[in-house]
Amino acid sequence: MGEVAWGSLLRYRLPRALFSPWPIVPLGASLSGPPSSTPIMAVECNNGECRSKFFRYLDKAPLSLYDLCLRILLVGWPGNKLETSKPSLCRRNTNNILSPLVKLVKLNAGANAQSTTIGGTAKASVYGKPISMPKTNCPLPTFVPQVVLAFSFGSHPWPLLNLTSRLALAAPDVSFSFLHTAKSNQKLSATSEAHLPHKLKSYDVADGVPEGHVLTPGNPPEEVELFLEAAPESFRKGMDMAVTETGQQKITCILNDAFLVFGCDMAADMDVKWVPLYVPAPYDLSAHIYSALIHETYAKACGGREAHGNGGAGGDLNPIDKTLDAIPGLSVMRFGDLPQEILDQGNHSNSSPILARALHRIREVLPRANAVVMNSFQELNSTILTDNLKSKFQDILYVGFLTLIVPTPPLPPSHSDATGCLPWLDEQKPTSVAYISFGTVAAVPPHEFAALAEALEAAVPPLLWSLRENFIAFLPNGFLERTRKQGKIVPWAPQAHVLSHKVVGVFVTHCGYHSVFESLFGEVPMICRPIFGDHKMNGRIEDVWGIGVRVEGGVFRKKGMVKSLELVLGNDQHGRRMREKIRGLKELVVKAAGPDGIASKDFKTLLELIISTKITISR
Known about the structure:
The protein is an alpha/beta fold. Helices cover 36% and strands 16% of the residues.
């Protein structure tokens, strides 16, 4: 075969199976045999610049799939430039496909292959064929390092971890460092059903709680406040730790929860891409984008006074009950459905002041992102909402519900459920059980807990209650003993599995975003008691879609709750209609999650954005 110089045009022949490597051959080598569709990859590296060419042997048809395979190999070479056509997704393992080319650029690198610059003239062989390389300043290829910053409260970490895992599996030559608090890390590890991908590693960052400090019981905003105050410095230290430990070069992209708005400034300082994930619903994002206009409109409607339940002047409709007609796509919402920090602009909100200020910055910083990723399906939006949000950002990508698998997999064997919920459900009648849960953060006032318990006892449905231990004291005296045969109370339940069980007939919920769609996938109508944040907006959508009811007056009272239970669990037209509508929505989502849905296309776009880079090879 003779010697192959680095500056030559190299051809690497790939068999159809895409696994067994074929030898590299020099430019001008003759290829005998009849015309074939076997792909040929050509790489030209002259005068410090590399260009890739892909064609089929003899017929010269382009192959963008291998364009991406080469990009994966070369990505991460700082200061280098690689011009390629728009790649298709490479779904196969490229390590074996490109191993001869990898060996070529790693010649004489030894143990420091990831950081050594090749200099002088190296001689070695690839598959027994001698190769010589003239002096060059081409750095060695490395994994593309990305960093992920998590908001460690509520259900926020799970969607971000699931998205990162999907990206890591789709791009095995890209490394991801997932930064979050030790407490959050423990929760994720305890509930994760699968091991993290090889190139995704978690790192603990400081939670901001001073050493020796005791958090005030029943005051969740305190922990959020301390975390956010320390977060910029904590995450910078976490990034330094990840880079040092992995030996990677410069981070190329920051992917973070959109609530961590300082990620925008960090990315700008580091001159890297910034991609925030917005975990709540698209209509919630729209409310924050238009928060200034909403506040101004609401203040005018109130006439300069507070209007929370006080009625309007002259018997007019209370401003809190007026619809948001001025906001594109939110005409079904009312001022009273909005998070309090939007109406108050942080002046009277009981939430964390730092979080409130961060949420106000969303409208300022998200338009600067390379793309905003949505934890939703675009097909569920109105056209007005979709078009308006697209006009606000450089790009907006809907990648589906990141805490759900679509289509829903079969339930695991009941005996594998350590909580005992699934075996208990197996003994109940179809659509008869009331499942009650208010998530991991939301708290119903004590007097409402008592009213809810009394209603459940009076209506006598079989009940499964996921109840945190610190709230058991709020139950009526003797409730646990009297309902022992009627139901089961656990500190935590596998909610997605519970809601997918055929015996669950109603879900009593706080209307958290993930809870609503877990209920939709289980085809279980809801009774909603919103508590804070986006809960009321989710509850309004649930009401508009006709897949559940709100509790009368917005609070739990025994009489109203008994009425709601009878309405949803009953076999009359109201209960049947809700189940029909929820099945129709589920079918829409399942179709949206398919290969022809927007989520599939947008995930590919996100993947290309994450791994793409223009690379120049300097001399």
